[in-house]
Amino acid sequence: MLKINNVKKNFGGLKAVNNASMHVKKGSITGLIGPNGAGKTTLFNVIAGNLQSDSGEVVLNDEKISGLKSYELFYKGVLRTFQIAHEFTSLTVLENLMMVPGNQFGENLLYSWFKNSVVKKQEEKIRAKAIEVINFLNLTHLTQEVAGNLSGGQKKLLELGRTMMVDAKLVLLDEVGAGVNRTLLNEISDAIIRLNKEKDYTFFVIEHDMDLIEKICDPVIVMAEGSVLFQGSFDEVKSNEDVIEAYLGRGMKPKEALNS
Length: 260
Ligand SMILES: Nc1ncnc2c1ncn2[C@@H]1O[C@H](COP(=O)(O)OP(=O)(O)O)[C@@H](O)[C@H]1O
Ligand SMILES: [Mg+2]
Description:
Blueprint: E1 2-11, E2 14-24, E3 29-33, H1 40-47, E4 55-60, E5 63-64, H2 70-74, E6 78-80, H3 93-98, H4 109-114, H5 117-136, H6 152-164, E7 170-174, H7 182-198, E8 202-206, H8 210-216, E9 220-224, E10 227-232, H9 234-238, H10 241-248, H11 254-259
Parallel strand pairs: 3-8, 3-9, 6-7, 7-8
Antiparallel strand pairs: 1-2, 1-4, 4-5, 9-10
Helix pairs in contact: 6-7
The structure holds adenosine-5'-diphosphate and magnesium ion.
């Protein structure tokens, strides 16, 4: 579904992404791991249209998408979440979700003045969709809570919810597990698995939490120093010498590295 061919991205003299090539199969939940600074987030930024690569290409279903802006990718069903959640803190959970779909008639001043039935109908449709998403994610009790009051994990669930307001096909998740407690982490991983199975989402997941990777990801791609070091099942990754070495090289014990 997604092919990354020889992508390079430098920051000054630093080769953040250095000739990275990999692909994500349709219907998979593919993991992307690697030591801090390996280039994972930079690669996501390139895929999602938040950064322009220096060379190489990104292909979605045989269509070249490199250089497209994030809103153009949005309409192709490619969405991402951020390492730091991007919610509107003073809006409620419901309002945050209702903000997502673009091209709302209500945003057009002329339509707003007339307040005609088209606008109201569309608003009702979006509200119903948002409530469906809230229920799917077991956030019903928080529907009218302002997003700023949510816990870190609840914010991550809300981010996931934003991808459900449109017909997402490929969702890029950057560290959904960071700073999230075990209970919510399980809810997040269950939601990911359900979206994958019930709604046909393909996921590409950056994550440091190896329990989450083990539970939901196959295959797992390992990046180090801007390139792909290894790809395989979680068990293969765990026992691969090069992978252990890459984490060790960053001053981590293998157990810490692959179980932190
Ligand atoms: N906007 C930027 N400007 C300069 N250097 C950056 C920028 N973003 C990332 N880097 C550097 O690029 C390298 C890869 O970073 P990143 O993609 O965030 O890695 P990861 O997500 O795997 O931890 C790191 O050395 C980081 O410091
Ligand atoms: Mg990162």
